[in-house]
Structures are given as C-alpha cells and as structure tokens.
Design brief:
- By secondary structure, the protein is an all-alpha fold.
- The chain contains 20 helices and two strands.
- It has one domain: Sodium/glucose cotransporter.
- Strands 1-2 form a two-stranded antiparallel sheet.
- A hairpin with a 5-residue loop joins strand 1 and strand 2.
- Helix 4 crosses helix 5, helix 5 packs across helix 11 and helix 9 crosses helix 16.
- The N and C termini lie far apart (62 Å).
- This is Na+:solute symporter.
C-alpha cells in the first residue's frame, strides 16, 4: 500500500483509541460499563446495533459467495437479518429494555437465574461464551485476510494489530466507547462504500450500470436461492436471525437495554432493521459486479480486496480498508462487552462467592480484566481459524447452527405464551439442539440446509412441547414475565442475593 493509505488507516486507529479514552470519563459504574446507564439515544442505539451485527466476513466470505453465486448472499445473509430485527422491534426490544429499567439487569443472561434456575443460566453462559470465542476468531481471521491481500501483512500480525487496538478502547470505555466508535465507524464505512460504488459504476459505464450489469452476469447470479443456499436455508435463516439479532447475540440485546425507555428501544431496532435491508445493497453491489471486472480469480474470497487495490488510487485504498476494519472492530468490541457482562454478572458470582459483594470499583476492574482475557483468547484461536473450517465454515455451520439452541430459552423465556416452559424445558431444549447438530453435521454429514435448520427446530419443538406436556409454571416466573410485558410502573424490591425482583 501507498504511504497515504497507511496514514488513513493509522488515523482511523488513533480516532478509535481517542473515542475510547474520552468515553472512559463517562463510565463510573458497572451499569455504565455494560448498558451505558440507560442513557443512549435511539439513533445511536440503532446505528450501534447495526454496526455490531456484521464484520469483515462480509468483505471476505460473503464477497466470495457473491462472486460465485450472485445475489443469494444478500437474501440469506442480510435481508434475513433486516426481517428478523424488524420482528424483534415489536417482540423483544421493549422487553430487554424493561429488564434493565424495572429489574436492574445489566447482563443479558442475568434474568435467567430467576426465570429458570442457576444451572440453566450457567449452561447458556458457558456454551454461549465458548461459541463466541470461535465466532470472533473467524472475524479476526477475516480482517487479517483483508490486510494480507492489501498490504502483505502476515496473518498473525494482522490479528494482533486489529485485536490490540480494539482491546484498548472497548476495555477503557465500555458500552459508551463501543457505541460512539460504532457511529464513527459507520460514517467512515459509509464514505468508503460510496467511493467503492462510484468507482465500480465508472468501470461499468456510469450510473446505468446499476441496472445494465445484471444482463451481463450469468443468469444464475440473479436467483435468490441456489442448490446450496435453498429456500429452506433462507427461511431457517430468518428464524435464526430473529433470535440471534434480538438477543441471541448478547451484545445486541445490550443496545435495547441501553436506550432510555421502551419507545426509544423500539425506534432504534426499526432503524437497524431498515439499515440491514437497504445499506448492504450499496456495499454489496461491487461484489455482485466483480465477475465482470476481475474474472477468473483463483480465490473468490479475495474479490473485494483485489478490486480495491486494483481500481482505487492511493489514500482511498486506506479509506476502504479502514471501512472494512470498522465492521470487525464494531462487532468484536460489542461482543467483548457483552461477554464481560456475562462473566462478571452471571458466571463469576457462581464460581466465587466473594464476587457477589464486589464494590463498584471492584466490579469495573473485574469487567475490564474479563474483557482483556476474552479478546486475547479470541485472537489466539483466530490464528487457527483455517484449521477449524475457515471463515464461512465457522460463521455459517458453527454459529448459525448452534446459536438457536442457546437463543431459544433466552428469548422465548420472555414471552407470555411460553410461561409454562420452565428450567427442565430450557435445559433439555438446549442439550437436544446441540446433540441434533452433532448428529447432523458429524454423524450424517448432512447438507447445509439440514445442518443449520435441525438444531433450532429441535430446540423449538422441545422447549414448546415440554411446556405443554410437562408444565412448570410458577408465581415467580409469572411475576417476571408480567413485569417486562408492560410499561406501567411496577415496584421492585431487593432479594437476599442483591438482585431486584418484582415486589
């Protein structure tokens, strides 16, 4: 890369660190660190939710699918999220917000100990945290791939550089730093995406390329589904993404919790939904056109990076690279904050009784230490990502398939319709989904559609079915569900372990 490109990338990294250090002054309590004290405006919560939902995987693995298969990647990869978040704006956003405002919850899993029991909470916490280590490792590997293609930086060094910068600002500034850097990253990424779109349209003969390009591409590239990414995969993805992007990915639940009230939480979710439906089309158009501009490349995953380095002048290459960085750093920093919340608020008090009585300063220190440990672990695993199935293998086959069993009890446990499903249904549905995945993927070497759909469908059937066949309805469960189901003020009182419960 040219010196101007390195200046752009370096300036971006410096900006992220400065925002993190500035946000440090706004973090005085554990609630500030994990939920921004419930003071985040809806537009910032919505943009942060959007930016925290996808990463450099879009510019590597998804760009590869766009190169070989066309628009199908938009439908199952992005439109499914937009639809899912739209559903969540009506169904889940306000409930997450009430968990914070009415029950004083700071971690997405904190309420599970009361809704189900501690074993259920711990099962979801440990399995979800382990899954996120591999998920984020795939994101580090994706951004390292981009850096390697752009500048020849070795993979390990690419992981270390981006991981270390992210670690600095998300550790010192908490959720405020995440959200504010998300906004800055959104602006940078938007400029970069528009520059790339402009250059590609110029190569295609002007703005008319927006509609003429489709006649020059192979007809199969215009199909929303393919033999691999079938209609079943698309429909299952809508279900998976509805759960995943409304709390199954714990960091996204925090954006709903951080809004001042339920109205603001819903508005933020709707903004994120619209962005997921519209904005990816701007970013992905160059990927769809890539077979015409750089035909017959050996590795389709490198398509976006090759176009950037081939078509853009010095300085703009660095801008696009900073835009790509922004996605991964936004997702990872928010994930790290959410995992830190789960470790500090849910896992640590069970493992170490003293943690229940942490002061605010001790709680903040524990949060920051757990963030450091988590991010370092993901960076270590990222160096082995290729041996674990590559970026697409981890993101699609692991995360998409295993997120369902973890999300089903967490999300459906909030809804009145499933108040009869208790801890037994939660644990069995979680275990059943994981076993179903192991059988489908490792036992039968099933197709993508079967591998992704089986775990979540099994978990749903078990959670709902056991609720009807072996109901475990309790007064404490009803109290929690009723409290987060409405906006009227409900008195809360302190229980013996220090958590808040309906009075």
């Amino acid at each position: 890369m040219h010196l101007l490109d390195w200046i752009m990338v370096s300036a971006y990294f410096v900006l992220m660190v400065v925002i993190g250090l500035w946000s440090h002054s706004r973090v005085n309590t554990v609630s500030d660190f994990f939920t921004a004290g419930g003071k985040m405006p809806w537009w910032l919560a919505g943009i942060s939710h959007h930016m925290s939902g996808y990463s450099a995987v879009l510019f590597v693995a998804y760009a590869g699918v766009a190169y070989t298969d066309g628009i199908t990647v938009y439908f199952w990869g992005m439109a499914s999220i937009g639809i899912g978040v739209g559903i969540g704006s009506w169904l889940f956003a306000s409930r997450w917000n009430r968990l914070r405002s009415k029950l004083g919850v700071s971690s997405p899993l904190e309420y599970l100990a009361k809704r189900f029991n501690v074993p259920t909470q711990q099962a979801l916490a440990w399995s979800g945290s382990l899954l996120k280590i591999f998920d984020i490792a795939a994101k580090w590997f994706a951004v390292a791939t981009i850096l390697n293609v752009f500048a020849g930086v070795p993979y390990t060094w690419g992981i270390i550089i981006t991981g270390s910068i992210t670690l600095i600002y998300c550790t010192v500034g908490g959720l405020w730093a995440d959200a504010l850097t998300d906004f800055g990253q959104f602006v940078i990424q938007a400029i970069a995406a528009i520059v790339m779109l402009w250059v590609v349209l110029d190569k295609l003969g002007g703005v008319s390329g927006l509609w003429t390009v489709w006649g020059d591409l192979p007809p199969s590239h215009l199909n929303p589904t393919t033999s691999k990414f079938t209609t079943v995969v698309l429909l299952v993805y809508v279900l998976v993404k509805t759960l995943e992007y409304n709390g199954g990915m714990w960091n996204l639940a925090q954006r709903y919790m951080a809004a001042p009230n339920t109205f603001e939480a819903r508005r933020g979710a709707r903004l994120s939904s619209i962005l997921y439906l519209v904005w990816p089309l701007v970013m992905m158009f160059p990927m769809f056109a890539a077979p015409l501009l750089i035909p017959n490349i050996s590795n389709p995953n490198n398509a976006y990076a090759i176009m950037t380095t081939t078509f853009l002048p010095p300085g703009l290459v660095g801008l696009v690279l900073a835009g790509i960085f922004s996605h991964t750093m936004a997702m990872v920093s928010s994930d790290a904050n959410a995992i830190s919340a789960v470790i500090t608020r849910d896992m640590m008090p069970v493992l170490w009784k003293k943690a229940k009585n942490f002061t605010e300063s001790q709680g903040l220190l524990a949060a920051r230490v757990s963030t450091v440990i988590f991010v370092v672990l993901t960076m270590a695993v990222a160096t082995q990502a290729e041996k674990l199935g590559g970026v697409l293998g981890i993101v699609v086959l692991w995360v998409a398939a295993l997120m369902g069993p973890i999300s089903v009890p967490l999300l459906l446990g909030m809804l009145p319709a499933f108040r009869r499903s208790g801890s037994r249904a939660a644990l069995i549905s979680w275990a059943g989904g994981l076993i179903a995945y192991a059988i489908a993927y490792y036992g039968y070497k099933a197709t993508l559609a079967v591998t992704v759909s089986t775990p979540i469908l099994v978990s749903l059937a078990l959670f709902i079915g056991l609720g009807f066949l072996m109901p475990e309805r309790k007064a404490s469960t009803d109290a929690i569900i009723d409290t987060i189901d409405r906006d009227d003020d409900v008195a809360v009182s302190k229980s013996q372990d220090g958590t808040t419960v309906p009075a």
